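As agreed, record copied across for absentees:
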Amino acid sequence: MSHLDRLADRFPDIPPGVLLKADLLRRGARLDTEATGSRHYHHHDAGGQKAGLDPRAHVQGSVELPGGVHVFITHNANSPYVLRPAAQSLELSIDTGGDGREEIVCAVSAGPRFAWTSARTSRGTPLATLFTPSLGGACGPLAVFLLRHCEFAVAGEECRFCSWVRMGKSVEMRPDVDEMREAFAAITAEQRSVGYLAFSGGSLFNRTKEADAFLDYMRAMRETGARLPTTVAAIQALDRSDSVRLRDAGFDYVCYSMEVWHERAWDEVLPGKSRSLGRARWMECLQEAVDVFGPGRVLCNFVAGVETAVPDLYRSDEEAADSTLEGMRWCCEHGIYPKYAAWIVSGGARYGDRQAPSLDYLVRVMKGRQALYAEYAVPVPETDCQRCLTQSFEADLAVVDPARYAHGAAAARAWRACHPRAAELRTEN
């Protein structure tokens, strides 16, 4: 029996390609730097910048599995999976017995790799310090990290799953309109498609001051004169007046991520957020933001699985998954669109030595999320497509098994067509 058959035997109602994606998110793969085609992100973990470390630790990106399933992939030297070059593509294998003997799982296609990530502006500034490819999406979505500093990390209260904010003395960067214009023009000339533009960064205890930075960067982007794709501000939950400021500045969406649902998990996993605002007020801010932006224009992400790392919080994976689904249901009831990303255990994070969520946990979350689509009519945001959602499964299930999983809002979404694939556009003509 093949590895995919074994996965299908355990979970017969989930497409094997989606199960493989979930397992790769849990366990990563041993990557060949040259073969993967994965992009070199700015590596945020300060410890990961030390000389002499395996350069593959800096490799992140996406690959496409059979059936059009896109998965965010990271290097894990201890993973049973290995990704290496084959005749015309890449080959994914697995060591199933821990004895070094490998079984070929499938051929995969390398994700996009853009030359601009190694280019500089006319002033010598690396383009990758102005914009960053977002989560390996094949539509070329971009992220802008405006605050390269997090007060939570300074106080030892950073989110326990997060590594990128541990950046020593790095500080806020002010936007330069001319450089942003030049960089964005170079990016769009190469990619010809930007699925969305996400603004994000470290957190401040003064949330209004944090919002000021988002307004500065949006103003700078508008002053470039470029035609902007869909924009989203991924920021701490803001009071109504600051939500209004983001809306009036032109943001299409805001993402006020709760990350975890259970009240005790908040204290354990999100100490900085618990002190800066707290769970109850965070939920109030989400509801106020719906009044400002409208239903479906306010997003809330959950890091699916990180709550299982809290000792003695849940008696089973089933109970942990149901807790996260309870949070998603609350969002749907209040016109908030619940997003989720499978937790990837990251070196440099406080929880970097904890156990990844089980496959059983992820399957329960993905099935429960699809059931919510059928029950609630919260619109799917324009940021989401099958090629962009490399850390969650809702698009894959709706496309790969529509009869079972494309119901309600999931059925109405053109998951494959809403964003052009950057690689296809670059090869036209």
Summary: Residues 39-46 have pLDDT under 50 and may be disordered. The chain has 16 helices and 13 strands. The CA atoms of residues 238 and 285 lie 6 Å apart.
